[in-house]
């Protein structure tokens, strides 16, 4: 998988520019190859330095996805080189994963801290690495066909790309539930949880771009407010628009919060399994958690219960080491093999259930691979 990012500069009536970055890897639902992240990161840096660029629109090509995640197939091949010795394979995996995740997290952090408005047009699938790009944008838009999730538990990873930070920004218990179950939420749910700020019909994308061109950029000292006004004018009232699906998570909001209270992961898992559900959405969430990696569940539990105090930069530093260690542990490799490579759907996890996980393994995963001063993300701004 290679893919690309298409860049375009729209000229406004005042001569100011709107940068459009379109993720284009439609065969893989716009999943992010290393090359795509590299293109996006450096173009965002260039636009940030250009005084004529007033805002950026980040979107996905086609009608199916904004971005379905990272290039886990490339990671799998780096983790499982058959012709190498075990030590050589381990070294190659460490080097590739460090390189990939370092760049991805730098790009995510840049979006979070960008000095100009970024509109994330989250149409279609917004999952995994796509969430990492989406949640950092200053203006977050969804459409009637948006589907959001952090499904890493299904492949033996964990909610990375800043998940340690943004899961802890959600109401108590909700972030943990989403991480443990990989549950897919729709636009009305995301709006209610403040993950998204606006819902706009998918066929209004061109109208949004045209409206941005018409804005009086030269006459305003607050471009963020200009973008707010443009988006509000196009936004759908979620409660009344017939195109929008019904909320799926919100009806269970209080039950989920109660189920996810406590300091015992096994009990919380049992509580979630015990939730009374009358629809396929909750049953799917339960079954995903039951089939997911117990190690991933423990990582997510610690993210939410022990690292809520970390600032954004420290979250990315923590996650870089976590992600590389997950890649060399074998759990991540096995999950990708079973779900995406061989597609057998029966990963052989290192531990069968959450109560059988050796906490010493989780302790090692949370131990940094690098001293602070040589950490690959040491220079992320505080």
What can you see in these coordinates?
This protein has 16 helices and 10 strands. Helix 2 (72-79) packs across helix 15 (331-341). The protein is globular and about 65 Å long. The chain has helices spanning 34-49, 72-79, 86-112, 129-135, 163-166, 174-181, 187-192, 205-214, 223-234, 253-259, 265-273, 280-291, 294-306, 312-329, 331-341, 359-365, and strands at 4-11, 17-24, 53-60, 65-67, 118-122, 125-127, 139-142, 147-149, 185-186, 198-199. By secondary structure, it is of the alpha/beta class. The mean pLDDT is 93. The strands form 2 sheets. Strands 1-2-3-5-7-10 form a 6-stranded mixed beta sheet, with helices on both faces. Strands 4-6-8-9 form a 4-stranded mixed beta sheet.
Task: Reconstruct the topology from this structure.
Elements: E1 4-11, E2 17-24, H1 34-49, E3 53-60, E4 65-67, H2 72-79, H3 86-112, E5 118-122, E6 125-127, H4 129-135, E7 139-142, E8 147-149, H5 163-166, H6 174-181, E9 185-186, H7 187-192, E10 198-199, H8 205-214, H9 223-234, H10 253-259, H11 265-273, H12 280-291, H13 294-306, H14 312-329, H15 331-341, H16 359-365
Parallel strand pairs: 2-3, 3-5, 4-6, 5-7, 6-8, 7-10
Antiparallel strand pairs: 1-2, 8-9
Helix pairs in contact: 1-3, 2-15, 3-4, 3-14, 6-13
Quick summary:
With 382 residues, this protein is an alpha/beta fold. It contains 16 helices and 10 strands. Strands 1-2-3-5-7-10 form a 6-stranded mixed sheet, sandwiched between helices. A 4-stranded mixed sheet has the order 4-6-8-9.
């Amino acid at each position: 998988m290679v893919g690309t990012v298409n860049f375009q500069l729209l000229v406004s009536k005042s001569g100011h520019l709107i940068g459009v970055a379109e993720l284009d890897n439609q065969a893989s639902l716009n999943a992010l190859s290393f090359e795509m992240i590299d293109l996006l990161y450096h173009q965002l840096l260039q636009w940030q330095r250009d005084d004529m660029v007033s805002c950026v629109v980040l979107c996905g090509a086609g009608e199916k996805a904004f971005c379905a995640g990272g290039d886990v197939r490339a990671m799998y091949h780096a983790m499982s080189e058959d012709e190498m010795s075990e030590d050589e394979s381990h070294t190659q995996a460490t080097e590739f994963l460090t390189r990939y995740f370092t760049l991805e997290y730098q790009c995510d952090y840049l979006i979070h801290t960008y000095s100009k408005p970024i509109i994330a047009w989250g149409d279609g699938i917004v999952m995994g690495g796509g969430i990492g790009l989406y949640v950092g944008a200053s203006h977050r838009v969804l459409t009637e066909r948006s589907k959001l999730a952090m499904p890493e538990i299904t492949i033996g990873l964990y909610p990375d790309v800043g998940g340690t930070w943004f899961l802890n920004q959600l109401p108590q218990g909700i972030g943990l539930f989403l991480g443990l179950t990989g549950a897919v939420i729709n636009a009305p749910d995301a709006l209610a949880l403040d993950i998204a700020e606006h819902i706009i019909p998918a066929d209004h994308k061109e109208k949004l771009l045209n409206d941005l061109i018409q804005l009086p950029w030269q006459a305003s000292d607050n471009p963020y407010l200009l973008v707010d006004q443009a988006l509000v004018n196009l936004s759908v009232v979620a409660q009344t628009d017939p195109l929008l699906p019904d909320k799926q998570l919100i009806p269970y909001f209080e039950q989920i919060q109660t189920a996810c209270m406590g300091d015992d992961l096994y009990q919380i898992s049992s509580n979630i399994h015990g939730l009374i559900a009358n629809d396929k959405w909750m049953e799917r969430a339960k079954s995903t958690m039951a089939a997911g990696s117990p190690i991933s569940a423990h990582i997510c539990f610690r993210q939410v219960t022990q690292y809520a105090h970390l600032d954004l930069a420290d979250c990315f530093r923590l996650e870089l080491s976590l992600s590389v260690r997950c890649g060399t542990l074998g759990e991540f490799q096995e999950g990708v093999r079973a779900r995406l490579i061989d597609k057998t759907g029966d990963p052989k996890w290192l531990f069968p259930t959450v109560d059988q996980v050796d906490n010493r393994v989780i302790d090692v995963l949370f131990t940094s691979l690098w001293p602070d001063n040589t950490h690959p993300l040491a220079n992320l701004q505080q």
